[in-house]
């Protein structure tokens, strides 16, 4: 289910609050971001939306749109929000290549209950279909295991000579983006003297507070293109009598989604 890895990450970012590990203060980069957000950050509200322009180099330009379009209790009576994610080649999402709508719980992570309790997805001109509860639980469990690793498998011993990237942050500054100029904090991941990744976070950007990401080594970037507070639902909810994505078909249902092909291309040598 690598197809949906990007969406799971987005869903976590949308509801996660900055936190620090027990037993010590947060690293300097994390503290800088926390201080930045504390001066005006707010929880995502219904209507918040943001569109990102993804530049893969050359003519490879795509857009992501993330919107908070509703709020209700999930099956566990937790406060939750409906998030819509669209992917396409046009900033207004005309004829989107793919769409997803998910109900995501707010608040602390539960050790046995996933944050996402409903998921509707479609590709191209296909009708939106909802994952059955069993298929969704399986997909989320597999993704969690993939991200955390199998504790029963022995881990290779770390190499003493292997260099470790350093995370460093700068001071808040004005950043020019496709959506205008915003206040943002830069964070860089550096190996020796090479910047592997550069990220700007801004409390002015709704939903995930991400203003810009650059990966200089491969010439790729993602930057906020538009944002606002007037989002309406654009993904139709399936009718109760429409077929769901069952467990036995979940693995193959969206194997050829456009964003999966983009991921595969980026991972190819």
Give your account of this protein's structure.
- The chain has 269 residues and is an alpha+beta fold.
- 20% of the residues lie in helices and 34% in strands.
- The protein has five helices and twelve strands.
- Strands 1, 2, 3, 4, 5, 6, 7, 8, 9, 10, 11 and 12 form a twelve-stranded antiparallel sheet that branches.
Walk me through the topology.
Layout: H1 5-15, H2 28-38, E1 49-55, E2 61-73, E3 79-88, E4 98-105, E5 116-123, E6 129-130, H3 133-148, E7 166-169, E8 173-177, E9 180-191, E10 194-201, E11 210-215, E12 220-228, H4 247-253, H5 258-267
Antiparallel strand pairs: 1-2, 1-12, 2-3, 3-4, 4-5, 5-6, 7-9, 8-9, 9-10, 10-11, 11-12
Helix fraction, binned, reads 10-25%
Strand content is 25-35%
Count all strands and give the number.
12
Shape, principal axes of CA atoms? globular
SS element count, helices: 5
Cα radius of gyration in angstroms: 19 Å
The assigned structural class equals alpha+beta
Q: If you average the pLDDT, what whole number results?
A: 76
Quaternary state of this entry equals single chain
Largest sheet: 12 strands, antiparallel
Give the distance, in angstroms, between the N- and C-terminal Cα atoms.
21 Å
Q: What ranges have pLDDT less than 50 throughout 5 or more consecutive residues?
A: 1-24, 256-269
Topology as H/E string?
HHEEEEEEHEEEEEEHH
């Amino acid at each position: 289910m690598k197809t949906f890895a990007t969406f799971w990450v987005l869903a976590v970012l949308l509801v996660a609050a900055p936190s620090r590990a027990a037993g010590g203060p947060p690293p300097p980069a994390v503290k800088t971001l926390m201080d930045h957000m504390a001066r005006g950050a707010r929880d995502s509200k219904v209507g918040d939306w943001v569109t990102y322009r993804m530049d893969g180099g050359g003519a490879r330009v795509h857009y992501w749109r993330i919107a908070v379009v509703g709020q209700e209790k999930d099956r566990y009576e937790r406060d939750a929000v409906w998030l819509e994610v669209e992917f396409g080649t046009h900033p207004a999402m005309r004829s989107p290549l793919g769409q997803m709508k998910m109900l995501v719980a707010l608040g602390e992570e539960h050790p046995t209950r996933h944050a996402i309790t409903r998921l509707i997805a479609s590709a191209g001109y296909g009708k939106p279909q909802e994952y059955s509860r069993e298929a969704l639980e399986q997909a989320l469990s597999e993704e969690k295991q993939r991200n955390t690793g199998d504790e029963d498998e022995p881990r290779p011993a770390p190499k003493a000579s292997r260099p470790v990237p350093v995370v460093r942050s700068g001071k808040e500054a004005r950043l020019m983006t496709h959506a205008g100029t915003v206040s943002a904090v830069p964070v860089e991941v550096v190996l020796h003297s090479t910047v592997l990744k550069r990220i700007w976070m801004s409390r002015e950007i709704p939903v995930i507070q991400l203003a810009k990401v650059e990966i200089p080594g491969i010439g790729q970037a993602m930057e906020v293109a538009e944002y606002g507070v007037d989002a309406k639902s654009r993904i139709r909810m399936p009718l109760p009598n429409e077929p769901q994505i069952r467990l036995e078909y979940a693995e193959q249902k969206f194997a050829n989604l456009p964003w999966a092909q983009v991921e595969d291309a980026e991972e190819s040598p």
